[in-house]
Design a protein that fits this description.
Order of helices and strands: EEHEHEE
Strand content: 15-25%
Radius of gyration: 12 Å
Strand order of the largest sheet: 2-1-5-3-4
Shape: globular
Largest sheet: 5 strands, mixed
Length: 109
């Protein structure tokens, strides 16, 4: 069973959090089940970029990036080559390390 380590986020999870999860769930689903409230303005429909996250470890084990997700990621704050929308990135069999950015296109801490 893979696990996700969410790196510390100064307001959501100041010490970080490790969560065990099932493959084929999205990063956002795992976060929400563990009371990590990543913003998701479009209600997980791949229509915004507010659930943007950065994959520090395990990027290649995630589901493939779709063209729609790739286009939406262009709107994300702090985009890099390991960025994904947490509502679209399905977990594979490897452990992940995930960073939740402090800023989104809708919210700034």
């Amino acid at each position: 069973m893979p696990k996700i380590f969410f790196q510390p986020h100064k307001l959501m999870i100041p010490k970080g959090m490790e969560c065990y999860c099932e493959s084929n769930l999205t990063i956002l689903d795992v976060a929400l089940k563990n009371n990590i409230f990543i913003e998701h303005s479009c209600n997980k429909s791949c229509a915004c970029s507010t659930c943007h996250c950065i994959i520090i470890k395990g990027f290649n084990s995630l589901s493939k990036l779709t063209e729609k997700e790739e286009n939406l990621l262009d709107r994300a704050w702090g985009l890099n080559e390991y960025s994904r929308l947490s509502c679209q990135a399905k977990i594979g069999k490897e452990d992940l390390i995930v960073k939740i950015p402090l800023h989104t296109c809708n919210l700034s801490f």
